[in-house]
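Operator note (shift B, R.M.): manual run for Cyanate hydratase requested after the automated queue skipped it. Running by hand, logging everything below so the morning shift can see what happened. Input copied straight from the record, untouched. If output looks odd, do not overwrite the archive copy; leave it for review.
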Amino acid sequence: MDKAEAARLVVAARTRRGLTWAGIAEALGTPLVWTTAALLGQHPMSSEQAGAACALLGLDETVAESLQQQPSRGTDPALMADPTIYRFTEALSVYGPAIKELIHEEFGDGIMSAINFRVDVERRPDPDGDRVVVTFDGKFLDYRW
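Run finished. Output pasted below as returned.
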């Protein structure tokens, strides 16, 4: 089974069982965003993690095997048109050059790793409507010659 089919089965099982992504991550003892990404096919899970996830979701061994496979990371171009995902593209198009300048000013010549990386999503109450707070936390990697 390919990872895309496994992800569809995971999403359907999560919905059918009334589970939240946070509840699944808590049951597995893994970070929320990483767990969600792994179950959607973007990270390989250990056999223990995949087995526990499938037991929780009522899915079989073929899904667990798929969850353990090394992914081809990235997003289907059609999914990039989704309004939520597109807004991240838009935000980075507008603010990316400024963020790059600020990283270089603060750290020097290098990049923020997306491999040694954590991301969190939080809700922050605001009188004008709740705010979505997304935190990218990547290790700084300096260019070495």
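Quick read of the result: The helical segments are 3-17, 21-28, 32-39, 47-57, 61-68, 83-107. The domain at 3-68 is CATH 1.10.260.40 (434 Repressor (Amino-terminal Domain)).
Leaving this for review. - R.M.
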